[in-house]
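Subject: Sanity check before I submit

Could someone independently write out the structure tokens for this chain? I want to compare against mine line by line before I put it in a report. The sequence has 256 residues.
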Amino acid sequence: MSFDELSGKVCLVTGASRGIGAAVARGLGACGAKVAVHYRSGRAEAEQVAADIERAGGAAHLVQADIAEHDALDRLVDATVAAFGRLDVMIHNAGDQISRVDIAAFPDDLFERHVAVNIRPTFTACRAAVRQFRKQGGGGTIINVSSIAARTGGGGGSAVYAGAKAFMSTFSRSLAKELAKEKIRINVVSPGVIDTEMQHRVTSQEQLKATTTQIPMGRVGDPDDCVGTFLYLCSDRLSGYVTGQVVEVNGGLLMP
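---
Independent answer below. Compare away.
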């Protein structure tokens, strides 16, 4: 068994300029996929990801948008189809913890920002992908990216972010039930503590060290540790009977 079947598949990866999204985009490229590499502001980083994809034998096309804008995901899907002719896989990875704030001091505009970058884009990404899948005659794969915080509640000051990620998991399960008969599979990857720019921005080194002592595998994860799970879920041959699942990738920190 291998990921050869991913060769030529058209995949849109949101938030693909850095972190987990970049690692997944590179992994798909190494399998020969055609990857739409989405970025918001990190064009230079996205260009490097695209170059790595093409060097590995895949094809890449840069797509830019701020996912907080209401029509952003529709435009990203349209741009992907314009570049590659179709869409086979939507990987919605973009999102942000933004900051940790005590609930009593949590401002309304910060709550709205969480809705704009973590909740609404999940809905619009799935809607845009399903519309395109149906245009193509049905079938397709969606993978949304949640967080261990959706199950544990996260650390202090992250209740709204954790709640947004929990919405993603439940929303994905519900859609998976609705769309299974159309051969559209929807699953969720839920990373634990991963060494990303976002993690270091919202978590102190002291907090990371303390959390690491609780991880059975004894280390914080690397974005590359997540890639195999995405490739498996992209493969109809390997995971064709898998839908509505939340796959935890966390070094044993959470064992459901």
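---
OP: Matches mine. For the report I'm noting this point. The chain is about 45% helix and 15% strand.
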